Amino acid sequence: MLHIRRPLSQTVATLLCLQAVLLLLRARPALALEDIIVSYAGPTVTFLPAEVARQRGFLREQNLDMKLLLTRSEADRAALVSGSVDYTLRAGSTFVSAARGLPVKIVFLGTMRPFWGLVVRPEMKSVSELKGKSVGVPGLLGAQQISAKFILKHYGLDPDKDVIYRVVDSGTRIAAILSGSLDSSMMDYGEAFRAKKAGLKFLVNAADLHGLLAGGLAANLKKLKEQPDQVRRVLKAMVQALKYIQENPEGTQQVMMNWLKLDHEMAADIYQMARNNFTKDGMVDESMLDDLVKTMLAEAGIKNATPSQLVDFTLLKQSLK
Length: 321
Hints:
Number of domains: 2
Strand content: 15-25%
Shape: globular
Oligomer: single chain
Strand order of the largest sheet: 2-1-3-10-4
Number of helices: 15
Number of strands: 10
């Protein structure tokens, strides 16, 4: 066998180079993650793609660190327009903002159907019994109030006259109904399942009645113009999260258990109920988008708005490539 021996000087030089590289790597500070502030209505299945992107490291891979900020619909609109937050996960209220001419656009849609329903006191047997009573929602003209109006109208009530809407924060609605200070409330699946365990009744699953574009990602026009690279990186992480939700049930359920404080049984049940409510890649077919937007905005008293005024998928399409 032929042995080729390197000159000692060459070996020493190679080792010294390797040592120098290692020293440089150790001495070099870690690349700081870029903070982004994202507003939302609280931990719910509707906003699950964002939390999957965070817990599973998809945002970190894009050198981003997402800080979630809990807001109400009214404050959320002002914060997004002013740039006080970088993005919002609230698609429903952003549609209303954009339709009213505010400088914001939806750039990603994570959902096609709502992830919530109507929860009532255990003695109530029908939606019609809510006439003259209160319905809790997280914000006025937000997606859950729009959904509540669909449900009430479907069961023969006048959604603008027959009930009293009360803004009640997530996490306090179960106690409010149990105490008698609230008659019913819209609740996301996680809270609704906890309400069932507390003895309340999950009367209507909104996804059985209508489509709704509730969870997504929106930014103001200045952000889209001045920081398109950051927007694309956020979108890449969100698309990865949607794929993960479809392909990794166990991993997704673990994220749900951590974030929504669910046990394994509840997480599995909610996952099965919610899985097909998500979009595949953040986009919605134009005809479906047009129909849903018109119906949603009609509930908010807005007419003649077109999808191009509200949605811009340009950067999402670039990210998908």
